[in-house]
């Protein structure tokens, strides 16, 4: 039987002797008790797949004879061009299961191939296997397919997609979305005395979400006069757009006596595009020393930190210490670096294990209903605290980071509780 078809679970013989992470994720954040996170302890990992004595003839890990077994499917691109991502996310999900040591929990991987038809088939197979909750898929097309495959089943799905338009009654999005990232960094900049903003965003789904988030934050913070410019993400040359955006010709005609058109510019982009925008701003006499660059989690990239055109950039992202802890443990377990969004699979699996354990202890039943998922106190994960908003999109507690001397440093820590925030 191929690995992606094997339900994964833990026998009591393969549970960890040290369950430090159970304390990390196995409780809801309480209003007065979310002041700190416990440190990870080093533990030895024995996977079900690496322990043939734990497997029965069908390739499954035997569960206790008592009832109350939990069956959760995880839909990932385990084949095709994104197979490496799917593999990394599956390993992270396994790591969460092993860390929490929940012997009644079965994780059922299903391959979507990253396609809509694959997502539909994987979801249908998950239902046939008795899944009570679905984690994933990753890509928007696969999520749409999975939604079709789950239609009428009353089984909820926690997807990893960043396409916020996919959120609906039975679909929750745990992916890294720009809404909180934009709000966090703009509010921080406002506190630091920045009053004039520009927004230079790609005209795509992500850019639309970032502009929408900025406009909502703008109203809340009392910001006015923002200059917003959109551009095609497929544009070969942004120089004319940025030339007009920065009032370069007017400033040149008046020998720059007009000053800068804004104090900071929000750039919801990453990779080469972010670097190109930074250098083009420089070429129109708006270096980082005069106009602060603001970004989203797409800026969470050490390569960008070394770009002089982006020096001093502020952006919001998950707490770096927690992320570093997760990556260090993953490398110890698997001998390789996890892909960036692999942590989503860890947190989603840990959330499912925690909710099922708690509901079984309380009521003797497994509760993955909306009421359980929408706990207003939220949950603690390897990317910080998070909870689902009323629109089923994850709200996160984020840190503010800065590119400083070619490195990424934390300049404002992430909140440790949602106590003072409204949903």
Outline the structure in words:
The chain folds into two domains: 3-175 and 320-392, Rossmann fold (3-Layer(aba) Sandwich); 178-317 and 400-412, Rossmann fold, CATH 3.40.50.2300. Helix content is 35%, strand content 16%. The chain is built from 13 helices and 15 strands. The protein starts with 19 loop residues before the first helix and ends in an 11-residue tail after the last strand. The strands form three sheets. It has a seven-stranded mixed sheet with strand order 7-6-8-9-10-14-15, with helices on both faces.
Task: Describe the secondary-structure layout.
Elements: H1 20-25, E1 70-76, H2 83-100, E2 105-111, H3 116-128, E3 133-135, H4 140-150, E4 157-159, E5 171-173, H5 178-191, E6 197-202, H6 205-221, E7 227-231, H7 239-245, H8 248-253, E8 264-267, H9 271-283, E9 292-295, H10 302-305, E10 314-317, H11 320-334, H12 342-363, H13 370-373, E11 379-381, E12 384-388, E13 394-396, E14 399-404, E15 407-412
Parallel strand pairs: 1-2, 1-3, 3-4, 4-5, 6-7, 6-8, 8-9, 9-10
Antiparallel strand pairs: 10-14, 11-12, 12-13, 14-15
Shape: elongated
Percentage of residues assigned to helices: 25-40%
**Alpha-beta classification:** alpha/beta
Specify the CATH architecture of the largest domain: 3-Layer(aba) Sandwich
Largest sheet: 7 strands, mixed
Describe the structure concisely.
By secondary structure, this protein is an alpha/beta fold.
